[in-house]
Design a protein that fits this description.
The chain is an alpha+beta fold. About 35% of the residues lie in helices and about 25% in strands. The strands form 6 sheets. It has an 8-stranded antiparallel β-sheet with strand order 13-12-9-10-11-14-21-19, sandwiched between helices. A 5-stranded parallel β-sheet has the order 3-2-1-4-5. It has a 3-stranded antiparallel β-sheet with strand order 7-6-8, with helices on one face. It is globular and about 60 Å long. InterPro entries: ACC_Biotin_Carboxylase, ATP-grasp, BC-like_N, Biotin_carboxylation_dom, Biotin_COase_C, CPAse_ATP-bd, PreATP-grasp_dom_sf, Rudment_hybrid_motif. Pfam families: Biotin_carb_C, Biotin_carb_N, CPSase_L_D2. This protein is a component of the acetyl coenzyme A carboxylase complex; first, biotin carboxylase catalyzes the carboxylation of the carrier protein and then the transcarboxylase transfers the carboxyl group to form malonyl-CoA. It catalyses: N(6)-biotinyl-L-lysyl-[protein] + hydrogencarbonate + ATP = N(6)-carboxybiotinyl-L-lysyl-[protein] + ADP + phosphate + H(+).
Length: about 450
């Protein structure tokens, strides 16, 4: 049954993005807002908005029963969780199902299974997907030393329930493995309420490559190419691009086949991303995890394929199935996305909430801005600091870099500091231009010099 009225259970640019996608499909929208977001761009554009509660996320965007109650009372028959908040919490789709609301995302059992990294790793292995050499559950510091000796150092201790770099520690020898076990386990308990750890061989100069997937829940899964998300700080992505220009075509085909095989093996439904480490020196890739939701960086996949992934999500949740075949998905050109945060990169990325006094984004062919900001808009201190995503599309990587540099140069934001100057410095660096980057490049190479220049 096609969705007629969609509840948007998120905020910021993704809430606005979902409203626009639904309106393009002639679907009514109801946006959930906290008291701090009652005048947001998404609330103004939607057919209706509902104030969930106070600004604190725990009392608004992170309360699944409150959200589903609001969706039901507003007559919605579909719910889109966006990313972050409750998007990967199985309780939300379970509550939706109990109230006859179509959840725009995977089945709850699949979310549960993929959210546990050890279970996801086992599922990937069963589907024939390459894994980083590693361990099963590590139960003690002595186990960590023993497994580290077996795998070979350096190793990475990881939280099974983890994400976002929390509960992750690198160990270069047995003593560090024992100490790292206690540190990672404590972080995992504090962040996720679950201290279960496992270990993997650490790849010092890896690239982070991920495949955009879309499944119909009946075993049919398509890919929309891969993204290279190697520019990171503390495991948080800053710049994403598509395709991965550093990967040869034969590996790219294997990467796509592996991602599709994994998703098909669990009858994956809706949008998801299979993430991998790409060891450039060994010319091998290894499975990391699956993110069971739409990703922040999905626009670069849209730019190179021409498909609206959020509209496709909504259609699938309404029972329409996939609207395209794999043969329809053609890759064209190169796209790059910058996450623009209201942070002062020269002051250790200090968050900078406040009012934007001037907002003049760039315009022109191949330029897209996903943002909920405008002149006079307030950035509240209660949530993440992202104020928008600048996406460019060029004929190739060099053309995309040139367009991005020009777009940043013409982007005027006043009132709060943003990370735009940092992005300008990144894309002007010879290593980025020549594509000699890896997941630790930003922190090891650029940021130390960037800090000195800023001082």
């Amino acid at each position: 049954m096609p969705i007629k009225r969609l509840f948007v259970a998120n905020r910021g640019e993704i809430a606005l993005r979902i409203v626009r996608a639904a309106q393009a499909l002639n679907i009514e929208t109801v946006v959930a807002v906290s008291d701090a977001d009652r005048d947001s761009a998404a609330a103004r554009l939607a057919d209706r908005s509902i104030v969930l509660g106070p600004a604190a996320a725990a009392k608004s965007y992170l309360d699944p029963r409150l959200i589903v109650h609001a969706a039901k009372e507003s007559g919605c028959d579909g719910l889109h969780p966006g990313y972050g908040f409750l998007s990967e919490r199985a309780i939300l789709p379970r509550l939706c199902a109990q109230h006859g609301i179509a959840f725009v995302g995977p089945e709850p059992d699949v979310i549960d299974a993929l959210g546990d990294k050890l279970r996801a790793r086992a599922m990937a292995g069963a589907a024939g997907v390459p894994l980083v050499p590693g361990s099963e559950c590590v139960a003690s510091a002595a186990d960590a030393r023993r497994e580290g000796d077996r795998i070979g150092y350096p190793v990475l201790l990881k939280a099974s329930a983890g994400g976002g770099g929390r509960g992750m520690v690198i160990a270069n020898n047995g003593d560090e493995a024992e100490a790292g076990f206690h540190k990672a386990s404590a972080e995992a308990v504090a962040a996720f309420g679950d201290g279960t750890l496992f270990m993997e061989r650490f790849v010092p100069e890896a690239r982070h490559v991920e495949v955009q997937l879309m499944g119909d829940g009946k075993g049919q899964v398509l890919h929309f190419g891969e993204r290279d998300c190697s520019v990171q700080r503390r495991y948080q992505k800053l710049i994403e691009e598509a395709p991965c220009a550093a990967m040869p075509d034969h590996l790219r085909r294997q990467l796509h086949e592996s991602a599709v095989a994994l998703a098909a093996s669990v009858n994956y439904r809706n949008a998801g991303t299979a993430e991998f480490l790409f060891d450039v020196q060994r010319q091998e890739f290894y499975f990391i995890e699956v993110n069971a939701r739409i990703q922040v960086e999905h626009p670069v996949s849209e730019a190179i394929t021409g498909f609206d992934l959020v509209q496709e999500q909504i259609r699938i949740a309404g029972g329409a199935g996939l609207s395209v075949s794999q043969q329809d998905v053609k890759i064209s050109g190169h796209a790059i996305e910058c996450r623009i945060n209201a942070e002062d990169a020269a002051r250790d990325f200090l968050p900078s909430p406040g009012r934007i006094t001037r907002w003049e984004p760039p315009q022109g062919p191949g330029i897209r801005l996903d943002s909920h900001m405008s002149a006079g808009a307030m950035i509240p201190p209660f949530y993440d600091s992202m104020v928008g995503k600048l996406i460019v599309h060029g004929s190739d990587r060099a053309d995309a870099i040139a367009r991005l540099g020009d777009a940043i140069d013409h982007f005027v934001v006043e009132g709060v500091p943003t990370t735009l100057p940092l992005h300008r410095a990144i894309i002007a660096h010879p290593d980025f231009i020549e594509n000699r980057i890896h997941t630790r490049w930003l922190e090891q190479v650029l940021l130390p010099d960037y800090g000195k220049k800023a001082a």
